[in-house]
Amino acid sequence: MHIKAAVLRAHDAPHRIEDLDLGDPGMGEVRVRIAGAGLCHTDLLPRVPDYPAQRPLILGHEGSGVVEEVGPAVTGLRSGDHVVLSYDSCRSCATCLAGHPAYCATFFPRNLTGGGVDGPSPVRDREGQQVAARWFGQSSFATHALVASRNVVKVAKDLPLELLGPLGCGIQTGAGTVLLALQVAAGSSVIVFGTGAVGLSAIMAAHLAGAATIVAVDVNPARLDLARELGATHAFDGAHDGLPAMLEKVSGGAHYTIDTTGSPAVIATAVGALRPTGTCGLVGAPQGDVVLDSRVLMAGRNLRGISEGDAVPQVFIPMLIGLWRQGRFPFDKLIKTFPLDRINEAERATVTGEVVKPVLLP
């Protein structure tokens, strides 16, 4: 079928809306008409010149939409179902079978190359050339996408479908880091470095968990104001020379710190802000080697890398939706919508920090 999608043909090129041809659903696949797709910082990775993504490429990995056609061997889904799309995993390796699909043995090729592992791309351009369309198993910056049914979460039809896509990655990652991976305890202290969609979702989740001290650290004053609105008890400028002392004063050494930036300098600060036996969750895409004084870790401080909040989407996303319905997890406050053909504007707003979570509407 004919679709429109935002295509990235080179790391330094703008996204271009193109007319493309999409194949039929294969074994275990569904075709989804996209209602909305969040733009995440991970969608910027193919902008890195040497990043091993296939190009031309359709990005987008926070999609939501309506099932239009169901392929062979699909159960539990039918045409007309409203769905949220999340990351891909094999569901058969040791970590997947243990309930941790975010650490799938084939996570990287399935999600972060655009090519996937399930055969050739189902999308071709008008010259008949393949366009990579397996980014996180969905490539949802398009009017339609083919998605493995294992990546799909069915949701109720009375929800604002176009806003739900970010639950599939960024919001899931932040909230899952707090509620699932770290299992933040009531009365504890949490410091979140970086208040983008992941960090703000972590702050909302820490508030839900009953953390007594929730500290937001960022250099964007507007983001810090929003963090306070969403549950932060304190908010500090990350560029302040006295930041370590300020963190120590309010937390006495945090039980948990969360880095969403990937910056080696910020990670070092996050580890240093822990109390003995505290845990630092590393969520941001790494931006270089991290060097830590081993004496800092000798006091029982812990580092943990966390992918997708260690969440099983089919379990966790409905839980977050339930909390949103109760007014306890207002993730919609992070979102600003853009038409799909303004994707380059939305990307700039992401890079500058002007918008927390752009959602593209085909």
Automatic annotation (TrEMBL):
Keyword terms, alphabetized: Metal-binding, Oxidoreductase, Zinc
UniProt domain Enoyl reductase (ER): residue ranges: 15-360
TM annotation in the entry: none
Cofactor requirement: Zn(2+)
Keyword check for Kinase: no
Family: Belongs to the zinc-containing alcohol dehydrogenase family.
InterPro entries: ADH-like_C (IPR013149), ADH-like_N (IPR013154), ADH_Zn_CS (IPR002328), ER (IPR020843), GroES-like_sf (IPR011032), NAD(P)-bd_dom_sf (IPR036291)
Gene3D superfamilies in the cross-refs: Medium-chain alcohol dehydrogenases, catalytic domain, NAD(P)-binding Rossmann-like Domain
Classification lineage: Bacteria, Bacillati, Actinomycetota, Actinomycetes, Streptosporangiales
Species name: Nonomuraea composti
Domain of life: Bacteria
Pfam family, one: ADH_N
Protein name per the record: NAD(P)-dependent alcohol dehydrogenase
